Amino acid sequence: MAIIKWTFWGVIWLIIAAFFHYTLPQVDIVRITDTYEKRIDFGENSIFWSHADVGNSTALGNRDVFFIQTRRAKGDVMVYRNEDTGWGWPPYFKFDTTNLQAEASDLKSAAGTPQYVAVKHYGWRNEFLSIFPNAVSVRVVDGPDASKGIPFLNIIILILFAAVVYAIWVRWRRFKRARIDPTLERLEDDIAEKQGRFARWRAGRKNK
Length: 208
Hints:
Layout: H1 2-23, E1 26-41, E2 62-72, E3 77-82, H2 97-106, E4 116-122, E5 134-140, H3 152-207
Antiparallel strand pairs: 1-2, 1-4, 2-3, 4-5
C-alpha cells in the first residue's frame, strides 16, 4: 500500500513539475541565423501549438507559422516557433508575433560577425514529436556569456504555489486529526470489540 501511495504522489509531482517547466518563461542566449514562415498541418501534437493570430480564422486545420532559427555559442541549433498566445494559456498575452518576427529578422548575424540575443520563451523542443518552444521576446546582449537575469517571475510564482500547497496541507492535517482520525479509531475499536465478542462466543461454544 505504501508503494502505491508514494508512486501516486510521485506521478502527481512529476506532472506538476513538467507543467511549470513547460509554462514558465526561460531565457536562451543565441545567435539568430534565419527566420522563415512555414505551412503547418496540425496532427497529434496540436496541443503544443498556439491558435491562429488574434483576429484571424481558427477553423482551418493548417496555417502559416513563423519560425526563428538560432545557434548557441557551443554550436548546437535551436529553433523557436513564433505564435500569439492571445488571451489563452499560458497567459503571456502575446499579440505581437509579426513585430517580433521583424525584430528577429533584423538581428540575424553570420558566424564571422556574431550578434547574440536573449530569447525569452516557454515550452519544449522535441524533434521526434516536432514540438518547438514559443518565443516571447528578443533583446540584444553583449555576448554569449551575457547574464540571463534573475528569473524573479518564476521565483514569485513558485513561492506562491509552495505557500498554497503548504496552506492546503496544514488544513488537511488539521481536518484529518479532528475528523478522520477519530472516526477511524472508533471504527477500529468497534471492529476489535466485535472480534472480541465473536472470539468469546466461539470459545463458549467449544466449552459446551
